[in-house]
Amino acid sequence: MSHWTTADIPDQSGRIAVVTGANTGLGFETATALAAHGAQVVLAVRNVEKGKQAAARIGGDVSVVELDLTSLAGIRAAAEELRSRFDHLDLLINNAGVMTTPKSTTADGFELQFGTNHLGHFAFAGLLVDHLADVPGARVVTVSSNGHKLLADIHFDDLQWERGYSRLRAYSQSKLANLLFTYELQRRLADGHAAIAVAAHPGSSNTELSRHLPEVVLSATRALTPLLAQSAAMGALPTLRAATDPGVLGGQYFGPGGFGEMRGYPKVVPSSDKSHDLALQRRLWTVSEELTGVTFPV
Length: 298
Prior knowledge:
Blueprint: E1 16-20, H1 25-36, E2 40-45, H2 48-58, E3 62-66, H3 72-85, E4 91-94, H4 112-128, E5 139-143, H5 167-189, E6 196-200, H6 215-228, H7 232-235, H8 237-244, E7 253-256, E8 266-268, H9 278-292
Parallel strand pairs: 1-2, 1-4, 2-3, 4-5, 5-6, 6-7
Antiparallel strand pairs: 7-8
């Protein structure tokens, strides 16, 4: 199926989907498509007012929950609200993220990109996984990036970049962490649970995510955007396929099928050798549990 589109999404009626960062960009397009196919969608967003505005634009059975991925207390509060509202979940889509931000930290002292993109979603998923682990057809979909291949490693000796900071390396670390998390979660879910863990990346998509790029890079990006980038709606297709295609297998990774995986229709794509390093996956998992205080019941 080389040209998979939203027209290929099966009926989602009766399914409950939580999408992080869903008030704009890729998350908004993901939530819109799921709601259009009958899903009950929860927009998990930092700015509740913007979330409500997005929900109104989407229409359908869409609600909002406040989620601040830069605060473990905020993450726990959001998870508790969702657990009180629903007896199960069918989809958890870890979409929210930041890219190449100036050096900053979360409320808990984590480097902002690692703390938001990986640790925040790790904690959020850990607090909700028992609500979907044994639900037939349930999926945890985490959005990574081509950036997971760029100078990427997990810097265990300085995870929070306290001895120096590189915007790109910190971003790449967080996106590699997304894949290491997905593959380790899938291995755990495969041990007797119904849910699966899948990853996706949007290629080069025209969204607000690039706003923190250095100006020289941003200028070049603006010039190349018409040639290389695709719309947010196209960029959301790998996530949507990972979330809804009946043929998806746990541990698969979806991205655009065009040149350099920068644009095109979604298909299964390879991730770096480092992302498949079992020892790295397990070490990151252990460290993530220690840092967040969240232990997965799977």
